[in-house]
Structure formats: C-alpha cells, structure tokens
Design brief:
By secondary structure, this protein is of the alpha/beta class. The protein has one domain: Rossmann fold (3-Layer(aba) Sandwich). The chain is built from 5 helices and 5 strands; from the N terminus they run E-H-E-H-E-H-E-H-E-H. The protein has helices at residues 13-25, 37-46, 63-71, 90-98, 111-123; strands spanning 6-9, 31-34, 51-54, 81-85, 103-106. Strands 2-1-3-4-5 form a 5-stranded parallel β-sheet, with helices on both faces. The structure holds magnesium ion. Magnesium ion (MG) is lined by residues 10-12, 55, 57-58.
Length: 127
C-alpha cells in the first residue's frame, strides 16, 4: 500500500481543517473530505479510502447514520472508522460503539491521542 488515504467527514470546514492539519503533522498527507454522511458515502464509492475520521452531529446524514450505512455495506464494512465528536456522555459512546465505530475521541483532542488511536486501528487492518 503506497499511502494510507483518509476521509475526513465534518460539517464544519474549520474542524475539517484542524483534523487534516493534525493528520499532516503526524505524517498522513493523503486526505479526501466530506461535509456530511451522504457526501462521505459518495466519496467512499468514488475513491479508494483506507481510514475514516468522522464527526457525529451533521445535517443530512449524521456520523452515526453514516457508520451504520458503512457497516451494512459488504464492500465498505471493514473500514476503520474513528469518530471525533463533542458528544462525550457515556450513553453516546455506547451508542456509537453499538453502531460499530472502531474508536471514539471526544473533542478537543491532542495530536498524540489522535495519533495513538489511528496507529492502533491501522495495526488491525490487513495489509
Ligand atoms: Mg458537526
């Protein structure tokens, strides 16, 4: 695999910028963006993506609905999905894990925490 291509999904352009800059800081330069879950599904169907970082609260299709759609698609279901959200209460985390996000980070996050989660998940992906 030449590079690990990321899909960053957030309705806030500022937040997408922060996530993308953090990815670059930790060595991941190959990034595609989407502004909601529906756009994200379209991006997954038109690009080869290896890792998804998604927000939860978004218009049109939320990160939770998006995660469920990915997990019920034969071609996409194994993709690592890291949810990055302000929703930090226990019930939310449980709901996200039940929808089978791979991991979960509550905003604001630090680059080392972000890197650790990504590295952990990439280790689990068959190369
Ligand atoms: Mg949002």
């Amino acid at each position: 695999m030449a590079t690990t291509r990321f899909l960053v999904v957030d309705d806030s352009a500022t937040m997408r910028r922060i996530v993308i800059n953090t990815l670059k800081t930790i060595g991941y330069e190959d990034v595609v963006e989407a502004g909601d879950g529906a756009e994200a599904l379209a991006q997954l169907r038109s690009h080869e993506i290896h890792f998804v970082v998604t927000d939860w609260n978004m218009p049109n299709m939320s990160g939770l609905e998006f995660t469920k759609a990915v997990r019920s698609d034969d071609k996409l279901q194994h993709l690592p999905i890291l949810m990055v959200t302000t929703r930090g209460v226990k019930e939310d985390i449980v709901e996200a894990l039940q929808a089978r996000v791979s991991s979960y980070i509550v905003k604001p996050f630090t680059p080392p925490v972000f890197k650790e989660k990504i590295d952990q998940l990439l280790k689990l992906v068959p190369q």
